[in-house]
Write a structure and sequence with these properties.
The chain is of the alpha+beta class. About 30% of the residues lie in helices and about 25% in strands. The termini are far apart. It holds the Pfam family Acetyltransf_1.
């Protein structure tokens, strides 16, 4: 398996990964609208100097993806001015449980460190126990829980 930066030629398969993410998240988020949803501007991640979008290939087949985006802290009381936000973490179902998510997070964290970014964050649904465990295994720890009420 190899990791590499995504290119515009990868956008078709990456858009199917995006819909896979939406499908996986629907049971955890009743606020999502029906139909096709686009969370990401994947082309922007490919072109931006403040982002990297990587893919994992196995025998010339793209099997996984993830991105890191440098964001401003927006809070002057934080110890860091910017942080790397990770997202678009997707592994094809038949490749799950083989440590590929860890390969992706390690690569994205390394990219962030190479840009002198010391804080890395991501969002995961608290009820998504397998994803929470995977991120904890990669060294992440819970930080803040967003709660909602539909009056």
């Amino acid at each position: 398996m190899i990791t590499r930066e995504a290119t515009a030629q990868d956008l078709e398969i990456l858009s199917t990964f995006e819909q896979g993410i939406v499908s996986a998240e629907r049971p955890f988020n009743s606020t999502l609208i029906d139909g096709e949803i686009h969370y990401y501007d994947l082309n922007e991640f490919i072109q931006s100097s403040d982002a990297t979008l990587i893919v994992v290939e196995d025998h010339d087949e793209i099997i996984a993806s993830g991105y890191a985006l440098i964001k401003n802290s927006e809070k002057d009381y934080n110890k860091f001015k910017n942080y790397a936000y990770l997202g678009f973490m997707y592994v094809k179902p038949e490749y799950r449980g083989k440590g590929i998510n860890k390969i992706i997070t390690d690569e994205l964290i390394s990219w962030a460190k190479s840009r002198d970014v010391s804080e890395v964050r991501l969002d995961v649904y608290a009820e998504n126990e397998s994803a929470v465990k995977a991120y904890e295994k990669a060294g992440f720890e819970p930080h803040l829980l967003t709660m909602r009420l539909k009056p």
